[in-house]
User: Fold these one by one.
Assistant:
Number 1:
Amino acid sequence: MAQEINDQQFETEVLKSTVPVLVDFWAPWCGPCKMLGPVIEELSQDNTGKNVKIVKINIDENNEMAGKYNVMSIPTIMFFKNGQPVDQMTGVQEKSVLQAKLDELA
Amino acid sequence: MPENYDVIIVGGAAAGLTAALYASRRNLKTLVIAKALGGQAVLTPAIENFPGIKKISGIDLMMNFAEHAQSYGAKIVYETVIKIEKTQEDFLIHTANKNVLRKARAVILAFGLTPKNLNVPGELEFTGKGVSYCATCDAPLYKKKSVAVVGGTYEALDAALLFAKQDCDVFLVHDQDNFGVFKKLFAQVQENKKIKVYLKTQVQKIHGHQVVTSIDVAVDGKAENISVAGVFVEKGHRIDSSWLGDLVARDKTQSIMINEECATKTPGLFAAGDVTQQRDKQVIISAGAGASAALAAYRYLQKIKGKPALLVDWQHES
């Protein structure tokens, strides 16, 4: 399961992470976000034990980080490395595209 | 070595998932390749005309479709098909994932519709940074901000009212002088003080700095700049089948032409749902078409194997 985090955990889990992190900004009202859900779960399983981390943040309950990083469309996938956002994608993405980005950052 | 399937279905919404259910119930080795599940249905908060279910969200209905198909053995992968190649006996299916090549004896095209773009400078650059194609997804992120809704569709009117409810200043921009049959909804929009309607107006450019800041429009030929934080494109949909090349015939709307067996002009290649000339774009109709396409594919596979197409629903008495 991809780890669900909140605004308070963002610093520890994402910004201070020693490995690259994929963050899925989503909300329960958003159909495409829910459709992306299984893709993120599969990605999470595929990368178990690898040098990357995959987390989800529900922006309905946690809007601070979404605001800070200018999330204006959901789903938004952001990639962080060494505490910095290094890439982002909006809308539903296919698994191989996300995996390729993770492999590039790892 | 390519992965082998009896049927590969391109698209994972009402037509594709129903085709997957029917194909897997005929014991065909079935794969659905979809960028994501659910298609346009997932943008619908409530579906109230699917027989047997009085009310259900589009997401839940589509998830049920997917689970139902999977329960009979259909497999789903999340990729985008970029090319289909016809060989002597099979179809080779290429996706953006270059590591895998898949092969099937029959293919069902059910990839639905694609949102229409504005095709103006700034659109691509600011997609996800203020330009959006899903008002229901992103509206809560624009509370009390100024937004433009562009298009003459039912969805455009609906989105304008949704933003007005969120206390946004809404600019509804449409290049025609009316909203056709949606008179009642347009009347509601006109009565709403939060919505300013621009008719006979074209969006010409989207400006921004990291995020959208304004749009240039031409109102009846006269230039104007409107400050907005968001541009919601609701111009309707189109069929993007150009990547199929000569494998299918198309009508003037680019719909894939099929016969009563859901067959395209290429033997073994079937199509169902919104990508076809089917007039009404409804979940129930696409689901029915998906079932027909799967049964037609089953009959086709039986025939090329030299076996009788067993399990017919009825038999005409001569």
Number 2:
Amino acid sequence: MKVDIILAGVGGQGILSIASVIGMAAVKKGLYLKQAEVHGMSQRGGDVQSHLRLADYEIASDLIPMGKADLVIAVEPMESLRYMPWLAKDGWIITNDQPFINIPNYPELDALKAEFDKLPHKVVLNADKIAADLGSARSANMVILGAAAPFLKMDYAEIEAAVKAQFERKGEQVVNTNLACLKAGYDVANR
Amino acid sequence: MSKILLLGDEAIAQGALDAGLSGVYAYPGTPSTEITEYIQASKQAKEGHIHSIWCGNEKTAMESAIGMSYAGKRALVCMKHVGLNVAADPFMNASITGAHGGLVVLVADDPSMHSSQDEQDSRCYAKFAMIPAFEPSNQQEAYDLTRYAFDFSEKYHTPVLLRVTTRLAHSRSGVERKEARPQNELSICPNPKQYILLPANARGFYRDLLAKQPHFEEESEKSPFNKYIDGTDKSMGIIATGIAYNYLMENFVGKTCPYPVLKISQYPAPAKLVAKMVDECESVLVAEEGYPVIEDQLRGLLNRTGNIHGRMDGTLPRDGELNPNLLAKSLGMEDTCGAPVPSIVAPRPPALCNGCPHIDTYLAINEAMAEYGPGKVFADIGCYTLGALPPYKAIYTTVDMGASITMAKGAADAGVSPVLAVIGDSTFTHSGMTSLLDAIYENASITVMILDNSTTGMTGGQDSHALGRIGNICKGLGVDEKHIRIITPLKNKHAENVQVIKEELAYQGVSVIVPTRECIQTLSRRMKAQQNKK
């Protein structure tokens, strides 16, 4: 068993906390894990990605080979498309549809939508709105994680436990909000 | 013990702590920064009173580490690859003095230049200094090799180089710890001449270093980190160093590699094992993350056999980091690359943060410099290097730490006028102070803007030695107090800031302008922390 995940977004959007939750759940389950992160210059508002690899055997490479990623999980729509060369033929894209526009030549939203329409396996959702409706605009990344949960080859309860552990020290209210966001994303993906 | 998830950098830090470290010395630099930060945050380090405060630059860090080794304790000095250029003088000479307490020089290289201005390979420095080098292939080896490196250093009384590259430094995986051992007792080097590199002494110590070389080679032959894995297909043998070994093996998950493989993680390269491969196999593929160091040695000047393949004959790219797909291609395996990137996807280069003080500084500089034409602003290394990109396009040079001031002076010497140097506060105390002294010594007509955001921003907000000292440093070096101008880079001060820059550009002599406003990242972190306290 293996799950290879490219996490994508813009520096500062919190892809590493998604990685951290999945990583925690994987370690608890006794899986091998490798996670390549981006630190340094590119963090400043540039495109960032993380290669997260889980397997029940020892993993060789820190980088996912192109064409082998089972999932691209993105908190920004254009960024999800940047990693198409990594996505396996039967792989899934799970992405937020809310653009983060900090460049002058950002594509037209219709053109973005047309690209997603071409994809056979995708979950595209407005995570910002779902999170805001649940009272925590900052938790959009947990909505995305919830939408990715059915593809992680782990039980939902295992992901849920990791979210609890991740936010535990911030108090019960923060934990509950994030769990609600997780569930909302999960429900979208299952529909 | 159970496994803990660590970045490659953190594995090195924990490995050093468990090896009985007494001090880490470093200046922040991607991808090495997290090693020192891990030790700074470590309870184990606090309890052991292990030194972990940032140093002014890599040279001061290296010298402090040599001093700690002289006193018999174990020292780790960490830097990014280009930092070793700054520390090259003490580094090279430390190979002559040798080490007393274990001395490990950790250098994190950045192939593909993710956050750097070149992709130099530090293994060349180890060869230059004639000291052993270690190159872990994964996080567990990063942990294990760190202790092994300290042991090696103490066994042969030599500094050693530990080399990682960006991917390993910033990739996380499970690491199993060993039992921690105590620090060394204080013991000053017993030979009173050992660290006096007078020519008469140094000649002898250099011969000692030469005499150690066969031992270093022998150690490499029997190192547990170098291994020869036999294969049935001798049409090709593969030498893979450091992390390149993982990229190779990724192509054989669940299968056996048919070719003999020599994995190398300890240098000098194990010549006998290499000879075995060359003798057994019709051709040899060399995969190295960085320069083709071993490949170059194997080919030699004349490349008479023509059966050594790798970066130098195009089997692998000559530059940039490796990955599993590049290895697959070099082996003639199928390229698994997925669909192309849709054409609508636009590049998203890094940019200055919203609210960054450098934005206001550059807007003021652009207006003040407009009448003088392009090419007259010399900048330096830090977040503010992003001022080279649109919409600012404000700067024309970025070469090395501190070069802004001295390059501006050289251009002024050549007749360029006016000239403006732009340097960050931390970069200024790293390598800009002597540059400024050169300018003052000759009363060169240059204006220096020291962008004071109270931190080392690019690497994530480490304390800066410059904090609260810039004015006094400039005064002490001899800048006329009337021409040290503090400004606040804010939108509503734009007009007066432009005016100040214009006034100082007109001054014939050295003037300093200090735009002062805290980094927006450290500020928001501080505010959040304050809020959490309430």
Number 3:
Amino acid sequence: MSSASATVSERTAVPSAFRPPPSLPQIVKLARYQLREFLRTRRFVAMIGIVLAVGLILTAVTAHYRGGLVADPIAFYGTAWAAAVGYLIVLTAILFGGDAIAGEFQNKTGYFLMGLPVRRSTVYLGKYLAVYAAAATALLAYLALVVANGAYYFGVHAVPWQLGISVLLALLYLAAVVGVTFVFSSLFKTSAYGFVLTAVLLLFGFSLLQDYVSILVHGEPWMILTYAAGTVGSVFGGTVNWGWSGSWVLMHGEIEKNVVVKIYTVAGVAEGVAIMLGYVALTAAAGLWLFGREEFS
Amino acid sequence: MLTDTIHPTEGECFLNGVSTRRDRTTALAGAGVLIESPEIHPSLTPREALQMVADLRGVPGAEWRARIDTTLEEVRMSDWADQEVGRFSKGMKQRIHIAAALLHDPTVVLLDEPSSGLDPRGMAEVRSILRDLRRAHRLIFMSGHILSEVTDVCDEVALLDRGRLLFCDTLPNVIARFTPTQRAVDVTLARPLAGEALAGSIGRLPVVIAVRPRDARRLRRTSDGGIDDEERLLRALVGLDIGMAGFAAPESALEEVYLSQISRGE
């Protein structure tokens, strides 16, 4: 404290020489530093290792069995990309986002950020962008491996347009999954809860709910994220459903004797995009609200 | 609450006239903050961590290098500027946090228990830096439970007991106001004595207003007598045959005031 004799209340505050940047540039700056941190972590190396392993298995299986897999480009990309990418999205989102917010409390790194002139929403969105970028990097690495394989069998120019649509849908699905992960991460101050709940919900919970809604309620499971995520693979189908309602099959007596049940299998593309955008918006609102209320105590 | 990390049940906190709840960005723009013992992401170096702070605080890029070097010098961390933080001791990390709080030349430095959780060496390092900051006429607003540290750093003190403000004044005023009539003495016993026995035997002695066990063999006795009463009290304590082995004033005068005020509140 100053050795001057004036009391604290008598001293006049001098305006700071520096003005913090507006929120948007701060979000980008924070995301950049957070991403740099991610890229140096073992978990990023592990994630790239997993992606490479999956890619190598794909390469080996394709080379060994060939058959229908390399019959035509659409079948190849539909299998090699779409079949694996859903799991990779969940895995990358959990790995980077599971403790993104909870870790700030658990590891006390949040106390460092909270001393800076940044809004809580800036911290949340900056970390969201960083997690998204890290997870997308891993996905794009997998995409590169798939395309390299495809180019080997069919040539560079045989990449179907469906792959482009599928990649865009996958990136949108990733945004929604990271959003869900952040909500759970904001709900708890312990990282493990965020990891486990997100994994259970995205790998099993949503699928079960989707079946229950179809079978028990006989309705379209438009509120289920994984239902929308089916569009990532469905665009490779013979007849693509671009519409606002899902595709379905009729099951005759398989679920209940003499009863025909309409089972929705996958959302229409427009519907899927709307569902995923809805999840992005809702999870952002919920996560920001939760993080804003949480106390660093 | 000044940094909006916990929320008040009622009321508002203002920094430089700006509500921290309504506009924490503007409120904290002129403040340097250290909340307990935070962590920095372990793969960052001190220079990178301070670059991030400078970037988010709006310090122009052209000034970064000079400011970071000066601030690291101020907290004696220049030699470790480019090593990863993950390998540092708590004391070293705390010094970087102090550097982060000073980087933009704040109008006020907010320190929340700055030596909390540090080992003795770390505590000594942090206190030494705080003394330097005081000499450099930095305005520091500090909360702490280690009263010797408060005495070391602060010119003015405010005492809170369970959220209630007991007093706020300059340190010399506080000590002058409370110590002449209330005197604390640490008593050490050769053998353990039960708390009831202490209250019964010592508490009944003249001018004694409080007896607080510190552990099985040590207690702090507060009295409202003057220095003359101390001799009589010492004799009386020896006469109780409770194994008197030590009789000394506490190290911190502020601690003496604190305990006397808390005991009054009870």
